[in-house]
Amino acid sequence: MFLNDLDPVDPARRGSPCQTALPTPGTFFGESPQEDLLIELANDGPERFRLLKRIGYVDHEFPSQAFIVPDDLSTFTTDLTSTPRLFTWLVPKYGIHLPAALVHDAFVVDRDEKADYIGPPITREQGDRIFRDAMKSLGTPPVRRWLIWSAVVLATAWIDIESRFWWRLRWILTVAIIASLGTIATLDLLDIVDWLPWMGSRPFPEELFLGGLFAVLIPAAISAFWGRLWAAALIASIAFALLIHVTLAIGALLLLYRVVERVATAIERRRRSRPPAARTARASST
Question: Which ranges of the chain does DSSP label H, i.e. alpha helix?
Answer without folding.
Answer: 98-107, 124-138, 142-159, 164-189, 204-223, 230-273, 276-285
